[in-house]
Prior knowledge:
Layout: H1 2-8, H2 19-26, H3 32-38, H4 43-48, H5 52-61, E1 65-73, E2 79-85, E3 102-106, E4 110-117, E5 120-126, E6 137-142, E7 147-150, E8 157-164, E9 171-177, E10 191-195, E11 203-206, H6 208-214, E12 220-222, E13 225-229, E14 241-248, E15 253-260, E16 266-271, E17 274-280, E18 286-294, E19 299-307, H7 310-317, E20 324-330, E21 333-340, E22 343-347, E23 353-358, E24 362-369, E25 386-387, E26 392-393
Antiparallel strand pairs: 1-2, 1-24, 2-3, 3-26, 4-5, 5-6, 6-7, 7-25, 8-9, 9-10, 10-11, 12-13, 13-14, 14-15, 16-17, 17-18, 18-19, 20-21, 21-22, 22-23
Amino acid sequence: MAAAAARERPTPLHAGLPDEIFIWEILLRLPLKALLRCRAVCRGWRRATSSRDFLLAHHGRQPSLPLLYDRTNNDDGGVFLDIMPLDHRAGVAAAAQLQPIARFASSHSFVRVEASCDGLIIVGTVAANSVSSGDRHLSVCNPATRQYAPLPLLTGFTLAGMYRHPPTGEYRLLLYPDDLYEPPPGSGYDCYLYALGSREPPRHIGWPEAAEVIHTLDPVLFRDNMHWPIEEDEPESESESGMIMVFDTTAEVFGHMRAPAVPGVAELFEMDEMMGLASFNDEVTTVDIWTTKDYDGEVWAFRYQVGLPVAELTTRFGFDKYSNLVVSSWGDDVLLLVQSGEWLLQIGINGKLVATFHRKLLGITSFRLKQNLVTHTFFPMLEGYVVNTWPFMSPDDSVVNT
């Protein structure tokens, strides 16, 4: 009987370690590439690391990294778009901080990242000489699983944001007409919603006053709400409040919240489980940082002012006030990413230059990427769905087995 019981007992995945510890304390902590290599060891390891519960828990442990992309021309006159998270965590070698994780090939001459949420990325393409909204195309992909699908039903619309709808678990897109000031006949200036995987066209929800705000900047998704700063005139007093447009992704309605009154355009970002607001002076020599002290009570606190090393940046990298600058964070540390000519610059909270990268066609975004190996069920429902093949490939054009 003892021998029969031994035969029925499952073979441990690792000699000397209980499966509970090996799976949930060791495999769960592996970076994505290392986890994919472990899947090739044996069927048991692959089975243990392929369950949805495991993949969701693994996604939850992945770092949320600033998302960048690099454009290079291909031989056919099109473009390769390399998707590149910036891994600036302590202990990561400089050469490994900015490495492509996937490549998107397009016959169009203009390609950019439009949104990112839970490891999913929306890519937009348009011909450089195009003036027609019908020539803009959107697609959805997951760099970790190499799943890709075009979104032809969204032709004629521009993406305002992507989110997971909490009641249904669907991933939805908030849209507005491509030409906001001359919308297609019958479409108006209003907002629309589209659920990824749906075969129905975007659903009209109205809110024309919101459409005039959400087209200006990329949103920040925080506590199941999307946020856009509303551009204000010069505040009359320090006590005056600014405003932020808020989209509740559960009820799918717009509202407002108070914010610090800052002149000009402000930028929102997430920082250490708080929402942050950055304000630049006219010459972009200083950055004021505010964070939510009480999000629900709409109370903000001034954190610090970052002075940029303008003389050094101008002399060495050709920096000027028109250079692209994004505020990012890691934990409670603020990191300024500056794109100046062919240079990507990292500037710390103390205003000192931390690191430099020389890339010709590098683009920085305000989005973040948290890689996700979950296989989303909506992909096969989309016409044109592919996996591990053109136009969405690994950086060296080879197929990666996930």
